């Protein structure tokens, strides 16, 4: 496996010198970052060139780096003492100046039995947009619709960019870091109107903190308060 990855890395580095930048991967897969303007040309070469033959786009997702590695989760009462609360301390973090959003592509070469990951950072935080890969891999169609629905990322040239998971009247993009966990609205069936209606969300916001229940006698107040000779 290592030989296949190393061999593919050499070919990628030789073909795309100055266009792809190798980034660290905790799972040992090939991972590169590239500019949005180079996406179509690079992906077309990765698909068609005999040295690569990445026939499949197996996954595509958006990323939101808002406050990534900078702040702990917003909570009301609990603290971050003693356990991780979303901050990767002492880790090499993405450069926040590169843009809030990114799109990550997972490619598979069946011919060479190698996977490759591409990441493209999007500079516009208000209206993130990138070229569609539907004409390179048809599987990008639904993946890009999902990224649009969940993150609000626009894909230039997509033939039918509309929501795919949320309701038609849904407002906002639920995977964005600034989207409220309880949402903004809820739906219910109204007997009088005979249809589903929207209304302000009725759920009260609360902090979701893991709770550990101890059953052994070290945490039994009745036992710990007994005299030593009892």
Description:
Helices cover 17% and strands 23% of the residues. With 230 residues, it is of the alpha/beta class. The chain has a 5-stranded mixed beta sheet. Strands 6-7 form a two-stranded parallel sheet. A hairpin with a 4-residue loop joins strand 4 (101-109) and strand 5 (114-122). The chain is elongated, with a radius of gyration of 24 Å. It starts with a helix and ends in a 6-residue tail after the last helix.
Largest sheet: 5 strands, mixed
**Element pattern in H and E:** HEEHEEEEHEEEH
What's the helical proportion of residues?
10-25%
Structural class: alpha/beta
Morphology: elongated
Topology summary:
Layout: H1 2-15, E1 20-22, E2 30-34, H2 39-48, E3 56-64, E4 101-109, E5 114-122, E6 129-131, H3 140-151, E7 154-156, E8 185-190, E9 195-200, H4 221-224
Parallel strand pairs: 2-5, 6-7
Antiparallel strand pairs: 1-2, 3-4, 4-5, 8-9
